[in-house]
Amino acid sequence: MFTVRDLFEARVHLGHKEGSLNDHMRPFIFGSRLGHLIFDLDQTAYHLRAALNFTAHIAFRKGIIMFVNRNAQTSHIVERTAKESGEFAHTREWRGDVLTNANVQFGAITRLPDLVIFPTVLSNILDLHFAVLSAAKMLIPSVGIVDSNADPTLITYPVPGNDDSPVAVQLYCDLFKRAILTGKQRRKEFQEQGILTE
Question: Which residues contact 84 (CB under 8 A, 6 or more apart)?
């Protein structure tokens, strides 16, 4: 689906400044250049492939997938990706108990998502998005792009990489859309062949 060169050209390797490194992200850092951290793209590719595989399996099993993003610069990309892949997106202000108290929030029994995808796990430059904590509390698997200044410990499938650049977010969204559509297409093929029933 992608190569390490694709990641490099999308500037996935660029992290934040050296002083902002989260200790949990240290194993994913290749080095630094001009005071900015550089991700090891071989590790990024490994983790991204695992995340895409998991996403395709969720789509294959007719799971609900929700994209969550708070970055105004890339929210339109995330919304478009969710729409084109037939899934859901939340790119506005997150109300704290949307997942943890959904039945009260929506006034009915609500099916929660089977997977939450975070193109960035931060709601601003410093704070972890509240939905990351909510998904972990509700045992909802999550995939998240984790920059050098973020904490990957609550993400089920963390992918180390640049989460700020629109070019990088576009690449992630294209890959996740392709994985979701591939999973759905494979399910349709299996149903047509009689291998899988509804």
Answer: 177
Question: What DSSP string runs through 46-80?
Answer: HHHHHHHHHHHHHHHTT--EEEE---TTTHHHHHH
pLDDT value of position 135: 94
- CA atoms within 13 A of residue 53's CA, in its CB half-sphere: 7
Distance between CA 158 and CA 155 in Å, rounded?
A: 5
The one-letter amino acid code at 168 reads A
Amino acid letter, residue 130: F
pLDDT tens digits, 76-95: 999 999 999 999 999 988 88
pLDDT tens digits for range 100-146: 888 888 888 889 999 999 999 988 877 889 999 999 999 999 999 99
Express the helix, strand and coil content of the chain in percent, nearest 5 each.
Answer: 45, 20, 40
Q: Nearest-CA neighbor of 147 among 6, 3, 13, 47?
A: 13
Q: Identify the pLDDT of residue 198.
A: 67
Fill in the DSSP letter of residue 129: P
Per-residue pLDDT tens digits for 17-32? 887 888 899 999 999 8
